[in-house]
């Protein structure tokens, strides 16, 4: 998977996990074990190659000793440009009826 193939939101999530993991002093392998996840899975999360399930997301955030709301606030650092965030949501193809600034249409 090339860097261009990765979703911006997955990359941002992975970078935030890596930053917080390192700040807590965990190696990637030690953190994966602490979360009850495989090290290779954790590596792919941190590289933005995995679309993490909600259950695994909760495990990771809890292991970082954070509330979900606290963790997701850290993603703001990765989405300073709202245009990048809108593109990350893939709304252009998936839900064109709900684009900001465009009158709402019904399917």
Overview in brief:
The chain is mostly helical and 107 residues long. Helices cover 56% and strands 0% of the residues.
Describe this structure in words.
The protein is mainly α. It has one domain (8-85): 434 Repressor (Amino-terminal Domain) (Orthogonal Bundle), CATH 1.10.260.40. It has helices at residues 8-23, 28-35, 39-46, 54-63, 68-74, 82-88, 91-94. The longest helix has 16 residues, at 8-23. It comes from Comamonas suwonensis.
CATH architecture: Orthogonal Bundle
Mean pLDDT: 80
Rg calculated over all Cα atoms: 16 Å
What is the top-level CATH class?
Answer: Mainly Alpha
CATH superfamily: lambda repressor-like DNA-binding domains
Encode the helix/strand succession as letters. HHHHHHH
Give the percentage of residues in beta strands: under 5%
Keywords: DNA-binding, Transcription, Transcription regulation
Protein name: Helix-turn-helix transcriptional regulator
Domain HTH cro/C1-type: 17-71
GO cellular component, one term: cytosol
Element layout with pairings:
Blueprint: H1 8-23, H2 28-35, H3 39-46, H4 54-63, H5 68-74, H6 82-88, H7 91-94
GO molecular function, one term: DNA-binding transcription factor activity
Organism: Comamonas suwonensis
InterPro entries: Cro/C1-type_HTH, Lambda_DNA-bd_dom_sf, TransReg_Diox_bact_type
Please supply descriptive tags for the structure shown above.
Cro/C1-type_HTH; transcription; transcription regulation; 7 helices; Helix-turn-helix transcriptional regulator; mainly alpha; 107 residues; DNA-binding; 434 Repressor (Amino-terminal Domain)
């Amino acid at each position: 998977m090339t860097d261009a193939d990765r979703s911006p939101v997955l990359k941002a999530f992975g970078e935030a996990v890596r930053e917080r993991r390192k700040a807590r002093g965990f190696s990637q392998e030690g953190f994966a074990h602490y979360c009850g996840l495989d090290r290779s899975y954790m590596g792919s999360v941190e590289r933005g190659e995995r679309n993490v399930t909600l259950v695994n997301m909760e495990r990771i955030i809890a292991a970082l000793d954070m509330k979900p709301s606290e963790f997701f606030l850290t993603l703001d650092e990765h989405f300073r440009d709202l245009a990048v965030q809108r593109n990350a949501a893939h709304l252009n193809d998936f839900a064109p009826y709900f684009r900001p600034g465009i009158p709402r249409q019904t399917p």
